[in-house]
Amino acid sequence: MQSHIFYNTDIPKYLRRTGLFKKALEKGLKKFAKQNIEVNVIFVGEKEILRVNKQYLGHLYVTDVISFNNERPPVILPGEPWEFGDIFVCYPVARKNAKKFDHTILQEMLMYVTHGALHLSGMDDHEPKDRAEMDRQAEKIIQEILK
Prior knowledge:
Layout: E1 2-7, H1 18-29, E2 37-44, H2 46-57, E3 65-69, E4 82-90, H3 91-100, H4 105-120, H5 128-146
Parallel strand pairs: 1-2, 2-4
Antiparallel strand pairs: 3-4
Helix pairs in contact: 1-4, 1-5, 3-4, 4-5
């Protein structure tokens, strides 16, 4: 798996924990992480997450995380990774929600990266029980990473 972490908004250096975000991504992607895939995590501000939300989902609001799976191309050249997906994380929302949920900002950022990875791996959260299961798995992954 190839993963890229981009910081496209002002995030303090002490929160730029690229290694931790990559671990969360790998654990959230599960079996897919062992394949030749490429995933991007892009930390953005509220204006950018709103733009992405409007352009691609038709939503007119700011959200915490958005993930996009890319379809597997019909032909992948040898050695070329499958551009598996992108995860957009809104740092200002993470900062606000950390206080609301009594997490550190880093824990909240890891939650969003993990949540996005779980979506890319096929999990859904439209039903309350599915959302609860995603949250449970994300919390377990974050606890493993932060040990």
